[in-house]
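Task: fold both queries, return tokens.
Query 1:
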Amino acid sequence: MQLRPYQQEVARTVLHSIQGNLGLTFSVEIARQGGKNELSAHLEVLLLTMHMAAGGSSIKCSPTFKPQTIISMSRLKERLNDFGFAGLWVTEAGYILRLGNARQIFLSADESAAVVGHTADILLEIDESQDVARDKYTKEFRPMASASNATTVHYGTTWDDATLLEEVKQTNLELEKKDGIKRHFRYDWLEISKYNPHYQAFVEAERQRLGEDHPLFRTQYALLPIRSGGGFLTSQQIAQMMGRHSRLHCPQQPGIFVAGIDFAGESEQLEDEVLTRPGRDATVITIAQVLTPGANSPYTEPLIHVLEHYAWVGQNHAALYPQMVDILKNVWNCRCVVADATGIGEPIASFLRRSLGNKIVPFKFTQKSKSELGFDLLAAVNSGRLKLYRQDGSEEYRQVLSELERARGTYRPNQTLNFFVDAADGHDDYLMSLALAVHAAGRCQPRIAKGQSHNP
């Protein structure tokens, strides 16, 4: 079987535990797209082959049946065919693959899935263990290995220090100190790059795009856990946002201008959770220019220069409507405007769309959409592409800086992010408006022509 050295190391160790009936539990962290699923499929083919006469069952669970479990089943079918078993394996009950007397069972680890009653005689695999609920695993999956003292393998990438995978990993590291048996395997992107130069080029580009400290790069590629509840931005990240360009009240030359609008309101009712922001009382527009990197620039994506802020406190939205239209259309001629369309913002965004057409992009805050907004904002900050106008002594500059410094970040178990300013610490109107402007810039990227430069 064609496996890379780090995959072979895991496979040999797992097989040793199975053949010796040692019943060990392993944790395997492999950087995203580093071959974790291929390792699992190859192991499954080998075990089915070894037990096709004697019989026995292996079980693999994934956080969801669709698409994760279905993808795992499809991959195993492909590998069985690759190794000459086409026409010999059969499917049973829609979730079991049988080769001779040996079975590979695929189950969902979704909290609502009914899985009790299955037994793992050979191997128990927990795929994307960081996304599996601890109680589900402990009460329903872990006992499946008990009757035969079956070996267990947890696969995944890190997230925070409270996941099932991290718990198993820490237990394994402690056990390793006691008996010297290696139970935890970790292969980050640097290890995988030794064997795949194309992978190295891709991840290096992701590192430039996202920045090394971006949560997704840290967890998916560097395999470093994040810790929830801290500051959203570090002082170093905020310092990196400090630009040298001047604040402008109107365009000085033609360009691509975008805007993000956060509307004042007392609270937001999200589709999948309630997010209360009791201190939010300002409507804020952030104007930014999207600039094409020069031919010799280290940047591969457009730069985003914040040029202007507009803020209104305690003013009626209907009264502001003509002024906002004038600013967005006549002053800046914005190519794209992303407007908060959650709760009270929905009718206002609709009114603006009637006047400005498709330039207005309504944005509904949900747990998922806000998480993506936060990750995109972090990517723009970490890559150095997002710059504020230089300090001008204004209240707007002071406020945006204050919100950036006070912003908190919470990373959820489902690998989503919430970012906000706690009500006790002030508002987050400028922060959200800035994030929406970055989103607008992402929807409105200029064509990059060789030799073209931008104004600093």
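Query 1 returned. Query 2:
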Amino acid sequence: MQASRRTSILGLVTIVVAAGVVPALAFALVYRYTVDVPYIDEWTFTRLILGADRGHILWADAFAQRNEHRIFFPALLILGLSRLGGWSELRETLFDVGLVTLDLAILWRMIVSTLPARTVPYVFLGASLLTFSLVQVETLLWGMGSEWFVANLSALFALYVLTLRAPSASNVVVALGASAVSLFSLSAGLSLLPVGVLALLLRDPSGWRRASLWVAGSIVMLAIFLRGFNAHPGFPGRAGELATMFPQYVLAFLGGPLGTRNGTQPAEFLGMFSLAVIAIAAIRFGALRARGRSAEAYVPWLALCAFVVCDALLAAYGRAGLGIVQATSSRYATMATDLWFGVIALLVLLLADAWKAGRFAVRLVVPAAAVLVCGFAYLFVRAQFTGFRYIAEFTSPIQRGMLAVHDFPDPTDEQLSLLCPCPAYLRWSLPALAAAGDPQFEELVPVRSSSRAK
């Protein structure tokens, strides 16, 4: 009885740490290291922010294609936050921490609904640590990271709704709305369109009416997304490049959250491991379903893994020509981390099933679980050290660019390019924002267009 009470207390403490302490530490880290000035692509929102300051929103600019994305909802989010006292990178990144915390709330519901009660606190702690993993430094410390966090939160919510017990037509409509937010935040949302059908049919193989409703809604969203859409120049890569690099890119993408910036080979190995776990879990799911036994706990995690795998395939099609290393970019880790939530949950379900198979199986489960826990812990800790070291590498150029703008009346193009790849556009943006009365930029009024040859 006393041992049971100690276990309950330990579980409660673990949940408190996962739900409160880890997000608080992430909030503090983002507050400490965010450089409060827009960076690279984010300067393209200048026209949108200036237009709103003059009393009108440039809807066409918000909906405009950016590379292979339409980031309509993140653009409106950044615009809305700028109305709270000026355009602030720090305000955006802190808000993003809030979005990630909502991810964690959805994962909590999925974990509690599907996994054995004794494992819930510890799996939730792992999910919390992964959710705020420092391999996402580039995304966490950059206002443009909103597009990844909005898309990811919407996708998680959509899959959660679709994998509820016997989802109704109204559930499908709500999930379609969440999918629209994901799609018009990042092209990764395209993966939800086929995966939504899979999720519905895994939950209820006879639910063709609901699946048909999903397909109809998906066709409408796809038509809107593709209207006026132009293929990004240079993508995809040449056919030869795609044939040789496509599989490696996909594997590196999937393994990136636990192998980021440690070379592509570890990430590719982890990607293969994740696919093996998914395949075994899918076979186990099919076997349980064929015997008429309950297999519902597998559905949310299989659907989540399928979403990330589809996203990896899309990313490889569009970006494999840039090289495999690009697959392990910090920003991709936000979406790819969802795969590891699914892999960990599927491993727990598989081990729990094996535990019931008899004494011999129990003897195998304990050491297997210990090896997996130690392996994940090692990979996670190594990734955090790597991510923490990357903070200085990411923020230093932004700080140098901001100091150059502050300290020099007419910075060179080389100095301005630390903040924006188009110095001429930055020379127009800074005084325009200052003239609009934005407190973040008023002190930058001395920056003017320069006729000096660079």
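Both queries returned. Flag for query 2: DSSP finds 18 helices and two strands in the chain.
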